[in-house]
Amino acid sequence: MKSEFYDTLNRQVLALFEGETNQVAAMANFSALLNEHLETINWVGFYLIENEQLVLGPFQGKVACVRIPLGRGVCGTAAAENVTQRIADVHQFEGHIACDSASNSEIVIPFRNGNEVVGVLDIDSPIFSRFDEEDQKGLELLLKSLESCLFA
């Protein structure tokens, strides 16, 4: 079951990052953990807000777009609206920024320090409709756990 899968991953996140304060190290290992355990994904990582734009942070995958304006593309929309974007077919998303032409679906979750959006977690897949509601809930839980470790 997906819920058990995400509960197990969440225990790993809490154990791995308890007491960790270095954001870059934590985001790098968080990306690696997801890359290792999530099936059928081709990119996972962070974009961080800097001067009204998203700037590439720690990730696993192919070379990526370095800067994304807030409000543009799936990542910029998630950051600007502070709402998870779960996109079944990125080619149907108006303003989609194609960093990797092999990506067909995407989930982007706001990364927060308290109530302030400081970036996003972006996960891409070559599979259409790869991410469902259970994935969204599970991934939001994992990211919330990481946030609680880093920004407690």
TrEMBL record:
Gene Ontology cellular-component terms listed: cytosol
MF GO annotations: L-methionine-(R)-S-oxide reductase activity
Segments forming domain GAF: 44-143
Pfam families, alphabetized: GAF_2
Organism superkingdom: Bacteria
Family: Belongs to the free Met sulfoxide reductase family.
Protein name: GAF domain-containing protein
Organism this protein belongs to: Parashewanella curva
